[in-house]
Amino acid sequence: MNLEGSLTLLQIAAVMFVLLRTIRLVQRGNGSTAPVLFAFAMACALLSDFYWLAYDILRPDTRMPFAANEIGEWALFLLLGASLNADQPEKQPFSRKETAGAALFAASSTALWIGWSGEWVQDILTGFAFGYFLCCAASHAARSKAYPAGLRRLLRAACPVLIASQAALFFVPDPLKKPLDLFCYALMFTVMAVLFVFAVRAIRIGASRDKAVSLSFSLFAWITTTMYMSAGRFYDAAVAVMSLCLVLMLLSIEREAVS
Amino acid sequence: MIYAENILLCIAIPLVVSLLFLRGDVRRFVGAFLLGMAVCLISAYISGFINLTAGMTANDAAVFLAPVVEELMKLFPLLFFLVLFAPADRTMTMLAVAIGAGFATFENCCYILTNGAGSLPYILIRGLAVGVMHIVSVAALSIWLIAAKRLGVFSFPAVVGGLSLAMIFHAMYNLLVSVGGLPSIIGYLLPLLTAAALVFLYRRLPILSLPED
Asked: Is residue B27 part of a domain?
C-alpha cells in the first residue's frame, strides 16, 4: 500500500475512534443536538474514507470521476455546519461581516477549483456545502469571540493573500511559478500550525467550550482548504494533520456536551 | 434490447388489481413495492440520459453514476411519505423495505431477460447480492431518517447525510464487484454482512429499536 493509502487508513482509525466516542456521548444524552449532528458527520466521513481507500486499492493511479463519496463530503460539511449552529440561541443571527468574508473566500476557492479541474457542477456544489460550513464556522467564532486579536488579523490577511497567490499561479511566467507555489504552501502550513497550537491550548487550559469548538472547527476548515489546494507530499501532510484535528474536534465537542 | 416499460406493465398489473382486495399494512407494502419498480425504471432513464450527455463509458456509468441516481430516486418517495403523512416509524421502515424490494425485483427481471437465467449459481448470487443490497441501502436510509427524527435533528443536512451513506454503500458494492477476483467476493458478501450488522444495531441501540404493534 502506498503512503496515501496508509494515511487514509490512519484517518479511518481516527474517524472510527471519534465516531464511537461521540455515539457514547449521544447515548449519555444531555439534550444537546450538536453531538448527534457531529456523530452523523463522522459516519459520513467514515464511509467516504472507506470508499476512497477501496478506490485507491482497486484502481490505483486513475483519477476518480464524480462518485458517491463526494456527496458524503458535502454531507460532512453541511452536518458540521449544522452542529455549530445547533446549540445557539435562535435569536442570534449570522454575524454579517464574518459571514460575508467566509462566503467570499468559499466563492474564490470554488473558482480556483474549477480553474484546476474544469468540473463545474461538482465544484460549485462542493463550494456551496463548504461555503455553508465556512459561514457557520466564521459566525460561530465571531459570536463566541474565539479568535484573539492576533489570530483574527492573521486570518484576515492570510485568506486574501492565499487566494491572490493561487490565482496568480495561472498567469505568472514559468520561472516564478515554483517560488510562488512554495510560498502558498508555506502560508497554508504556517496558518495551520498557528491554528493547531491555538486549538490545543484552548482545550488544554480549559478555555470556554464555545472557544474550543470554534478553534478546532476553524482548524478543520483550514486543513480542508489546504488539502483542496495541495498535491503530493503536501497533501499527505495535510491528511495526517486532519486525523489529529478530528480528535481535537471530539475533545471540544465532549466539553460542550458535558457543560 | 428489452422493452422495460412492457415488463413493468406485465408485472405491475396483477399487483395493482390485488391492491383492490388488500387493506392495511399489506396494501401499503404492495403499493410501495410497485412504486419501487417504477422508481427503478425512472432511474434507468435518468442514468441513461446522463450517461449519454456526459459521455461516460458504460462501466464507469454503472460503477459511479448509477448509485447516485438510484439512491436519490429511492429517497424521494420515502421523503414524500415522511414529510406528508408522518407515518409511524415501523410503517416507515416497512415502506422503505418494500421500495427496495420492488426496485431489486424489477432490476433482476430486466437483468435476467437481458443476460439469460441459465446459470443457477450466478442467479443466486445476483439475488442474494444485488437484491439484498437494494433493500439494505434503503432500509438503512429509513433507519437514519427515523433516528434523526427521534433525536431532534431532522433537517436538510441530516437527509443529505443519510442519502450519502446509502449512495456510498451502493457505490462500494458496485466498485468491488466491477473488479473480479477477491474484491468481487467481498462485494457479494457486503450486503449480507451489512444486513446482519443492521439487525444487530437495530437490537442493540435503543434509539433505533421500533415499538411493537
From this structure: yes
Tell me how far apart the alpha carbons of residues B8 and A48 are, in angstroms, rounded to a whole number.
Answer: 34
Q: Does B62 touch chain A (CB under 8 A)?
A: no
In a mutagenesis test of the B interface, which of A78, A90, A120, A121 is the best target, namely the one with the most B β-carbons within 10 Å?
Answer: A78
Question: Residue B13 above 80 pLDDT?
Answer: yes
pLDDT digits 0-9 by tens, A209-223 = 888 999 999 999 999
Can you tell me the ipTM of this complex? 0.90
Give the mean pLDDT of A239-244: 95
Cα gap A246→B143, rounded to integer Å:
26
- Tell me the three cell numbers of residue A6: 496508509
| CB nearest B64 (choices: A43, A65, A75) | A65
Tell me whether residue B209 is in a domain.
no
Full-model pTM: 0.92
What confidence tens digit (pLDDT) does each residue in A117-128 have? Answer: 888 889 999 999
Of B157, B171, B175, nearest to A79 by CB-CB distance is B157
User: B105 in a domain, yes or no?
Assistant: yes
Residues within 8 A of B (CB atoms), A 10-49 only: 26-27, 33, 36-37, 40-41, 43-44, 47-48
Number of domains in chain B: 1
Burial of residue A192, with CB atoms counted within 10 A of its CB: 0-12 exposed, 13-18 middle, 19 or more buried: buried
Domain, as residue range, for B27: 4-204
Q: Note whether residue B10 is domain-resident.
A: yes
